[in-house]
Amino acid sequence: MNSALQFNVSPYTSFMHETRVDLGNGIELHVEAGGNPDHPAVLLIMGLGAQMLYWPDFFCKSLIDQGYRVIRFDNRDIGLSSKIRNSGPRLNTFKLMGRFALGLENQGAPYDLYDMADDVALLIDRMGLDKVHILGASMGGMIAQIVAARFPDKVEKLSLLFTSNIQPLLPPPFPKQLFSLIEKPKSRDEDGIIDHSLRVFNIIGSPGYINQLEALQTARKLYKRSYYPAGVLQQFLAILCTGSLLQLDKQIQHKTLVVHGSCDRLLPPSHGKAVAKAISGAKFELIDGMGHDIPPHFIPYLSGLFADHFKT
């Protein structure tokens, strides 16, 4: 572990410590780490518009208790990490989505997922880590695929959670789930934004497993920590301007586990199956009843699944 980094106790949980890491490319990432620095490191990469706190504390603690050092961070443009001010032309999101669905190339976003993967590679270096196990969720899983293919010497093993390789002609997200992510709140005050977040949790999450009080507390905590909708849009544009990862998947040699929820309607399970099919030797596990989230009910099973994968 890089002793030059100054860690403070996280304001959110006592077993994680936070710091800011200057990547040297104009970006600073806000990072939390927990567990024994001598234990194997698991780097968690979160998805579209999602702050690192979307990795539940209970999930992080479960991995720490199974012998891992856990590192989570805010991607660029979200949470407490650097924001990207875009001075370029406004892009037509719906036009890009149409071209994206047909597998056509898009350009013009302020950055793409390759740039975000470079952030991850720089973070591994700046933190003085040798090789890390990587676990990426949703868009974070797309970034993880790029890191594993382009920086193979930085990655020990790979795990991917409810993600996609965005290859052409995969079934699109269900409209209700997709538009819940990119539509604007009904009002711009705190309650309006928190109501919007709750609605998103309920639309994309695991049916019957969402604790409404916990979801409300999480939404309020996330809002108070950071609210930057421009970053969510720019991350969405990054996905639309990245293109298929199918050829990259074929280069990945790491032992890979792909996990997906049977009730995921944002990225239907066929997306995860396509990733597992494209990566040589990858294992695929479908979790019955899980949506596009990590509810407490599934955490003991999920954390055990990933911990075992990283051990074997």
From TrEMBL:
Q: InterPro entries, alphabetically?
A: AB_hydrolase (IPR050471), AB_hydrolase_1 (IPR000073), AB_hydrolase_fold (IPR029058)
Does the record carry Transmembrane helix as a key word?
A: no
Name any one Pfam family assigned in the record. Answer: Abhydrolase_1
Please state every residue range assigned to the domain named AB hydrolase-1.
40-169
Can you say what this protein is called? Answer: Hydrolase
Entry keywords, A to Z:
Hydrolase
Molecular function via GO:
triacylglycerol lipase activity
What are the recorded Gene Ontology BP terms? Answer: glycerolipid catabolic process
Answer yes or no on keyword Hydrolase: yes
